[in-house]
Amino acid sequence: MTWSHHHSELTTATPAQLWTRWTTAGYWHVDDPGVEWARFDGALVEGATGVVKTHGVPAQTIEFTRVEPGRAMDFTIRLPLATLAITHDMAPAAGGTRTTHGVVLDGPLHRIYALLLGGTLARGLPTVVRNVTAGALRDGDA
Amino acid sequence: MTDVDVVVVGAGLSGLTAARALQQRGLRVRVFEAQDRVGGRVRSATVAGAVVDLGGTFVGPGQERILALADEVGVARHPTYDSGDNLLLWRKDRRRYRGLVPPLGVAGLLDLVRVRSALERLSRKVPVGRPGDAPDAAGLDARTLGSWLTAKRAGRGTHDLMAVVSRTSWGCEPSELSLLYALHYVAQAGGLDALLGTRGGAVEQHFVEGAHEVAVRVADALGDGTVRLGSPVLRIDRSGDGVTVSTDDGPTTARRVIVAVPPALRRRIRFAPELPSAHRRLAQRWSPGILSKVYAVYDTPFWRGDGLSGMAVSDEGPVFITFDASPRDASRGVLLGFVGGDYARDWDAVDAAERRIRALSALADLFGERALRPLGYTDHRWAEEDWLGGGPTAAPGPGASGALHARLTEPVGPIHWAGTETATRWAGHLDGAVSAGERAAREVTVALTLEAVR
């Protein structure tokens, strides 16, 4: 059993622009108001790791679990008796690109974490999606 | 002998109404307008064969002045479509509902009713036209609507719904707006139901040919040469016997001037001698909100076939509230969406193609994939209008309402003030613009009559 929440939007940003935005650690704190900083340990491939520091929370190790250039990128954070996955997908749609960000909680204590963190994570998704697309479009203009 | 009796600055509905009333009393009037069109915060466009209002749109019961003016110039109205179910897209759940009460669950509804009742009770203590005389006016003015909601322990759902009200009414977030200003705004409209309601409220009707047509017809009736477009007023010099109003085309002398621009735009005019300090502070602190409008025009109002009214509220944005603005004969389906407050700050900043796809994406979340394929689309960002700076009305922050409100209309020698913000009833609406213009014209007429008697 899992708890999940997703948010999709259409954008004129291209898959290449979005991919750059997703996979550049230096943009994460710009696009997500909750993030203080992020870094990756080497090349972005499945199984690669990194560290994310969110405001008010100790830095946490992340592991990339899905890396499909121009299409999808997921990473997970291990919590006591649960796993938090942050998912990113994109696909062509309606003359643009449909981009979807999600949060998925899994594991024995996923319901507890959903109660504690779920609302905040879910409410933040639309803002992050719009920040990413706006940043991707700015990158494209540069 | 002056060039004219009265100069009016601004050819919005308020300035035009003032000019019309003065002319009807036999006075010589000239209107200077900075933009190349009349109407100010009303403007219309035709999109895929449908007339749409890019600015002020709706009228309702109790708004006698705009209704009377529209009748006089022959612009007809029709009811805003409200048959069928409304939609609420809330926490990823799309629900149908009827009337003004959204389906928030028992606990959510009880909280909403509790907070809303408290707000209405508090608003009734604020004297209309004199918010500074309310009990503890300074205390109310020192807080924001948002901080009051927090102090009332409003639940997140209630807070988010009040944010919808705030973005729609003032183009800002609750955390940006003086509580006293919000309370007075609710009081002068006659309560939240009157302010927000379709049937029996301020969005009950709209104009067949668009609200802009009212302004166009009033301007046309003023006669050739009365309204000077593309003529921003740069300076107003006042002396004992009148004013000199300067534009790029030179000075115009008059016995009185009516400045009918949004309060923040008063700063664009150089007054000599300077205005009193409270008047200057008003112009500095009564900045407008940010509200943009989106229209998607379809071959038919397809949502009606699904039993939907076209009215929807969403907590996702950027389009956070919609209405069915289709023509009376339903020859086109027109969805009107609002983008305001923080949503507008993000959305206004992206290019036209991105604004379009984001807006249609939001409409599709509400009304289905068909919403992605309109015959026509347009949007209008009022914050991008150089001579208006935002909309729909002023959104003063904490500390800017109580003491400064009285300066909205207080003449400074031969300088009088109009504009919807200066109205004592329906300020921020089309009706307020008209009644404020009429009030300013009355003031000037009385002043000139008294001068003549002396």
From TrEMBL, chain A:
The lineage of its organism: Bacteria, Bacillati, Actinomycetota, Actinomycetes, Cryptosporangiales. This is Polyketide cyclase/dehydrase/lipid transport protein. It comes from Cryptosporangium japonicum. SUPFAM superfamilies: Bet v1-like (SSF55961). InterPro entries: START-like_dom_sf (IPR023393).
Automatic annotation (TrEMBL), chain B:
Keywords: Oxidoreductase. Residues 13-444 form the Amine oxidase domain. SUPFAM superfamilies: FAD-linked reductases, C-terminal domain (SSF54373), FAD/NAD(P)-binding domain (SSF51905). It comes from the Bacteria. Its cofactor is FAD. InterPro entries: Amino_oxidase, FAD/NAD-bd_sf, Flavin_amine_oxidase, Flavin_MAO. Belongs to the flavin monoamine oxidase family. This is Flavin monoamine oxidase family protein.
